[in-house]
Amino acid sequence: MTIRTLSYLPRLSSPDQRTAPAPQLHQPASKIVNLVPSDLSRGMNADYGVPTELAGPLQQRRALYQPRLPPCLQGATVRVEYDDATTTIDPTGAHAVAQAFPRTYGQRLVTFLSPDDTAGAVKAVNERQPIRVGVVFSGRQSPGGHNVVWGLHDALKVYNPQSILYGFIGGTEGLFANKTLEITNDVLASYKNQGGFDLLGRSIDQIRSSKQVSAAMTTCQDLNLDGLVIVGGVTSNSDAAQLAETLVQKNCKTKVVGVPVSLNGDLKNQFVETTVGFDTVCKVNSQLISNVCLDAISAGKYYYFVRLMGRKASHVALECALQSHPNMLIMGEEVALSKLTLMEVINKICDGVQARAELGKHHGVLLIPEGLIESIPEMYALIQEISILHNNNVPVTEIPTQLSPWAAALFQFLPPFIRRELLLHQESDNSAQLSQIDTEQLLAHLVEAEMIKRTKEGRYKGKKFSSVCHFFGYQARGSLPSNFDCDYAYVLGHISLHMIAAGLTGYMATVANLKDPVHKWRCAAAPLTAMMSVRRHLRGPGAIPIGKPAIHPSPIDLKGKAYE
Amino acid sequence: MTIRTLSYLPRLSSPDQRTAPAPQLHQPASKIVNLVPSDLSRGMNADYGVPTELAGPLQQRRALYQPRLPPCLQGATVRVEYDDATTTIDPTGAHAVAQAFPRTYGQRLVTFLSPDDTAGAVKAVNERQPIRVGVVFSGRQSPGGHNVVWGLHDALKVYNPQSILYGFIGGTEGLFANKTLEITNDVLASYKNQGGFDLLGRSIDQIRSSKQVSAAMTTCQDLNLDGLVIVGGVTSNSDAAQLAETLVQKNCKTKVVGVPVSLNGDLKNQFVETTVGFDTVCKVNSQLISNVCLDAISAGKYYYFVRLMGRKASHVALECALQSHPNMLIMGEEVALSKLTLMEVINKICDGVQARAELGKHHGVLLIPEGLIESIPEMYALIQEISILHNNNVPVTEIPTQLSPWAAALFQFLPPFIRRELLLHQESDNSAQLSQIDTEQLLAHLVEAEMIKRTKEGRYKGKKFSSVCHFFGYQARGSLPSNFDCDYAYVLGHISLHMIAAGLTGYMATVANLKDPVHKWRCAAAPLTAMMSVRRHLRGPGAIPIGKPAIHPSPIDLKGKAYE
Q1: Domain boundaries, chain A
Q2: Given an 8 Å threshold on Cβ–Cβ distance, is B30 in contact with A201?
Q3: Domain at A71-277+481-531, CATH from 3.40.50.450, 3.40.50.620, 3.30.460.10, 3.30.930.10
């Protein structure tokens, strides 16, 4: 037996390999419980949502945390206050947005407050009808996603214990096919404050084509839903706005509510301070980067090229740089703004390596956001051409021969592993699979070549340049959520219920004052259309056509305070 | 400015990017303190051993931990008990070891106990002379290394406050050049319970050539050292034995003591239960693997190929598999024993993928030790040939042309990125740079090709196989040590002092009963020569010639309990 599956793995109590059982700072996800052969670490079955024991002591301890609520959400009822009507954050696009969303454009901002009149509020509770809500994960798993479901569930049961919450199994695919799991306290028990989206899973992350929209509507009608909560990022919330508009137009009673969950942190605007998951991912990655920094200085001989998640914006990389202090951060936004070519980026890095060598230092740590590659003009153009050929169903093997002469020349210049990765099939939103492109290896490779060249030319006299490459992506994404994300997600779940109860549709649940303690948080809801803009230039091979209103990823503000 | 160095990074108090300041489970290495432009995360200067503020709140909290000591080490003196004389763990090699180490072979086992007669012990303390000790990091940084120095320092000052501890700056290079830092409480303050080896650094990790041995002896004499403590793994402790023998032969009074610090966990034998760092690295990696497992099951569409450290033995991978429950573990020891070829390994993985697809599962997690590639017979032969050509100073570009026809054919079959990595320059011990060979990508690449082939032949009907590759190496190595490693390292530091005081040389500090609480730990010292064996077959392109006695990495016992 060479390849061992779980069924053969011994229990940890076997003494040979076990390390000492003293209480530990880094507790492992240890203890093998209820193992199903060949299955994964939570002892989960093939089906989603099966209540299971938690995998290890750390998970168990984490499950005990009770997220906090601001005062307005602590009672059985809230007061709903309507503010000004909204336009869009992009005034020049207002007309296009208004035309595309005739029924849901221009809605008013909403704030949730503690009730003025407690006696009246209690009376109101007794007159309430049970409410029926569905929830779906759409978009990449982010730490905290489970707590949105938990908060929604708790608020729903306080609203009226007869209320029902359905989770769609397998993400949007489950929504289209009406595959549901009723969310109960028992189901939630092993998912409270836990990472991943494995309570329900996720799949194609789109509710966009008319077939998809109509399948979603049919499910809402079949389940007689009062509300549908869509948990996701930029594109999922654009889809939520479209679905809300369609349901209103077709007189379907289901209210559509979006919840901002995305580890990239790029769903930020005047209504949304941050997304669920961003805090955790930055903290976990910063810890790993700090470890690598210590490693670099201990041996003093390697440059570490660390790629971080962040396709359209470098938020994660910038935040991690602030927390962990690497030597260099190469921000996509800056590269794009300065229109730096690939070789200019390489030369800047080499200049840094050379300057450090003159100080006697032959080690360092560089952070690279995965979206960097699309920020380099000539690489962007190449990826664009490949994307168009993909969309025209040109076979992968023929793509290199159909490129323009300049794109073909660049393609041939790149190392073979990057060529292969550039040709990979695309993401569900038709953009390049940036997470699969080893940009850090490309840079390390070219920096090494340039340093060898400088050495030969006598311009560099330091030690041989050596690099180690890392991609810190998926290992943070599945992490246990931070207290902040536990609280924030749980609060957003509560707000979602109150939005549905208030009859709001095409809105996103939001919280303001997140830098203050939880009791000062301001709970609100903002129309999704108010967050939209209209792109006149294609930015990245995304699926949203030019001129179509959508919520777009917000890049880092190069005039903003954090950047300065 | 595109490439930003630390001097330009803002403080975390800038509000734009900062995430909420709630108390967190995963605390970041945040807070920018005393930043030196262009330097690393601990705010360290170019020089080693400069006392600095700790980088973040987690590091600060960690520094408060006081490691525990077993009763025998809590007083100012210990009782030294001599047990039986030793031979070697390899009876057939005993003669060769005895010949190579005429002065240090066959020494007795030593145990340290609480003193019988406290009054006598106190009297003894007053008659003690100050003691002079040097300590050097040799080998890869492992969490806990700093606590060896801390324990040694504390024991030394209790022994006689006039005693002096020197740390060699820059590892063995500092030893040869007599570059020292006097270790004081002030120096230690910001390194207690911290990861990395950055208090002193490390470099070439060898005391082997006669030039190196004689430089080390000169330093010991110049500093008038009573003892030299070498902190390291398998090869460093082999070197320690050789140095001890030489110093005895040359009538140098310095006693040489080895301390088992290695994250690979391969320095294990009847005297050594585990090495410092192994516990931490397995726990941190297991947590990351658990995160990846959650991620895999959430999206349900990727196979994750995770490579782990472990050159000659798969201890880390096995322990992590026990803690985190992946789907497959490919152990080098098993592959070597069964003499599985590369394509047999690939086919076994593909069979697993296919079996899971029939259960409707298109995701999974595989663990791969970095040493796996040398366990595959034909790959081993290829690496061997390349190594020999390297040693004969054949230029890298010509190596492919000078391979044997079969090795050349295999080399050409491999993807270009692996070909490039195989030709990399070698480690300090002349072995291949396994950490730089992306074995996980090689396997993922070949598995994908095989799954496409099976699809075309109609043997596989599941969804398209997709993989994501990770190397969990350096990010765990720099981690904060676990409580266990903090305690274990601190205790070993104490034992080292008592060994020197007892006049032992060519010994390793050891602790038995590590699975029990600290108060039951048994403190001892074992002759390094007793751990030696003589290899008759070359195992991996290591530097230790056939027939020369050495401490060898212990592979996983395929008949052992952990494996079963």
Answers
A1: 71-277+481-531, 282-477
A2: no
A3: 3.40.50.450
Asked whether the CA dihedral B28, B32, B36, B37 is positive or negative, the reply is positive
Residue contact B29–A324, C-beta within 8 A: yes
> Looking at chain B from residue 511 to 530, which residues have their Cβ under 8 Å from any Cβ of chain A?
514-515, 517-518
Predicted confidence (pLDDT) per residue in B20-47, tens digit: 222 222 222 222 222 222 233 333 333 4
pLDDT tens-digit readout, A231-257: 999 999 999 999 999 999 999 999 999
Cβ atoms of residues A532 and A93 within 8 Å: yes
The full 3-state SS of B186-198, as one line of letters, equals HHHHHHCCCCCCC
Q: Tell me, what's the ipTM?
A: 0.74
Say whether A282-477 and A71-277+481-531 share the same fold.
yes
The reply to whether A470 touches chain B by the CB within 8 Å rule is yes
Which of the residues B298, B318, B329 would you substitute to probe the A interface, choosing the one with the greatest number of A C-beta atoms within 10 Å?
B298
Split at pLDDT 50, 70, 90, the class of B116 is confident
A192 touches chain B (CB under 8 A): no
Contact status, residue B139 vs residue B238, Cβ threshold 8 Å: no
Contact A17 B319 (CB under 8 A): yes
Range list of H helices, B185-310: 185-188, 210-222, 234-249, 278-299
Closest chain A residue to the Cα of B302, Cα to Cα: A474
Residues sharing a CB contact under 8 Å with residue A228, sequence separation 6 or more, in sequence order: A133, A134, A135, A136, A175, A216, A220, A243, A254, A255, A256, A257
Q: What is the DSSP letter of A111?
A: E
Residue of B nearest to A16 (CA): B562
| Chain A interface includes B335 (CB < 8 A) | yes
Whether residue A326 lies within 8 A of chain B, CB to CB, comes out as yes
In B100-139, the residues whose Cβ lies within 8 Å of chain A are none
Question: Is any Cβ of chain B less than 8 angstroms from the Cβ of A356?
Answer: yes
Interfacial B residues in 34-63 facing A (CB < 8 Å): 35, 38-44, 46, 55-56, 58, 62
- For residue B294, give the nearest of A195, A315, A472 by CB distance: A195
CA distance B405 to B412: 10
Q: Please answer whether residues A159 and A497 qualify as being in contact, where contact means their C-beta atoms are separated by less than 8 angstroms.
A: yes
Per-residue pLDDT of B496-547, as tens digits, reads 999 999 999 999 999 999 999 999 999 999 999 999 988 765 444 444 455 6
Inter-chain CB proximity A484 and B24 less than 8 Å: yes
The listed CATH number (3.40.50.410, 3.30.420.40, 3.30.70.20, 3.40.50.460) that belongs to domain B279-477: 3.40.50.460
State the pLDDT at residue B40: 30
Alpha-carbon gap, residue B328 to B507, rounded angstroms? 39
Contact residues on chain B for A275, CB-CB shorter than 8 A: none
- Return the closest-CA partner of residue A552 out of A84, A85, A95, A97: A97
Superfamily assignment of A282-477 in CATH? Phosphofructokinase domain (3.40.50.460)
d(CA B153, CA B542): 34
**Closest chain B residue to the Cα of A3, Cα to Cα:** B330
What's the predicted TM-score (pTM) here? 0.80
Is the CB of B319 less than 8 angstroms away from the CB of A19?
Answer: yes
Contact call for B484 and A20, based on CB within 8 A: yes
Would you list the DSSP string of B117-134? -HHHHHHHHHTPPP-EEE
* Crossing angle (nearest 10°) for helices B405-413 and B377-391: 110
Give domain B93-113+127-277+481-531's CATH number out of 3.40.50.450, 3.40.50.2300, 3.40.525.10, 1.20.1260.10. Answer: 3.40.50.450
CB contact under 8 A, A315 and B27: no
Name the nearest CA neighbour of A301 among A353, A348, A350. A353
